[in-house]
Amino acid sequence: MDKKVLIFSTAYHPFIGGAEVAVKEITDRLSRKASDGEAEFQFDMITARMNRGLSKFEKVGNVNVFRVGWGLGFLDKFSLPFLGYFKAKKLHGRNNYDLTWSIMASQASIAASFFKKKFPAVKLVLTLQEGDEEEHFKRYVFGNDILYKILIRPWHLLIFKNADRTTAISEYLKKRAVKNGVKDAVEIVPNGADIGLFSREYPEDELTELKKELGKGPDDKFIITTSRLVKKNAVDDLIKSLIVLGGYFKILVVGDGPDMKKLRKLAKEIGAEKRVFFLGRVNYEDVPKYLKISDIFVRPSLSEGMGNSFIEAMAAGIPVIGTPVGGIVDFIKNGETGLFCDVKSPKSIADKVMILVQNKSLSDRMVVSAKKMVVEKYDWNLVAQKMKNALSTD
């Protein structure tokens, strides 16, 4: 008999980050019907609406998505703990859930905690996916430490105290869970990559055409970053590295976010507006094509829960450069599967880029090692099986 799971997630498709990709990849696999025609899991989700153009109900993949709120981003997020709880209570009366699954310790997790208090027999699984430091919550109280400790911190800790089981996508987040008082052992279930999608080979003429569209000359080197354009991903440091790097280096920025305008302005200020291509949000299925025409992947993160984009770049077969922060250290082994650059150092980024360009044998060795690691540890099929075990435990 299938297990009914109610997911709590502050954001979901079409708002896509690493956590949202992970939930879809896992639920797609765990909802597939077995040979007897029965699926092992049925998934419903409660999330914030955040855009008036989005319907209050939609089926995304194998998940029934219930959006609450008025379609007003900030307001919907902060009403989610209450609206989400009442919606969950109503749905539970109809569906009698076996389990709840909270994605990240955020606004949705407060709703999950309220639900747990009301229905203690329903097991609660928490998955830590966040990439920001916990201190980022202070922005909601204008950086005031006292207000943070009174108004934010107690609510943030609720989910850690109420979770029956906790998983984390990295050692870094596992330590955070322990520090915040989880009751039992924390299991690491990393995010992964769609190996088939990201390692696929494209017809040469298709890649040539894309290079032509982007103006890639025979001597040009493309550095790519696939990132939300937010402070923690430090795309500004990557752009500043062009001050040091020669004119044949160009940057592809795949993704959007609140820092887009600021980053465009920066590129113009340093005279690199014709060397930085802001591609915006690219269809997920098309991302591998942009990786394939690129020479190096760089994300000089200030903080990182894990970093799906690194794993995807490794699967696509290009060398990666990152910073030794957060969960990145789980999969980048310096000189083996990638290179580390210093945090907040455009010059260090440029230095590491030049090492890869000038030492092709090192670059090739790292690509082979990284791809092998991804296939063995980060295939979504393997990850989904681990998550299945976490969700199946009574």
UniProtKB/TrEMBL annotation:
Gene3D superfamilies: Glycogen Phosphorylase B (3.40.50.2000). Pfam families: Glyco_transf_4, Glycos_transf_1. Residues 209-372 form the Glycosyl transferase family domain. InterPro entries: Glyco_trans_1, Glyco_trans_4-like_N, Glycosyltransferase_grp1. It comes from the Bacteria. GO terms for molecular function: hexosyltransferase activity. Residues 16-195 form the Glycosyltransferase subfamily 4-like N-terminal domain. This is Glycosyl transferase family 1 domain-containing protein. It comes from Candidatus Tagabacteria bacterium CG09_land_8_20_14_0_10_41_14.
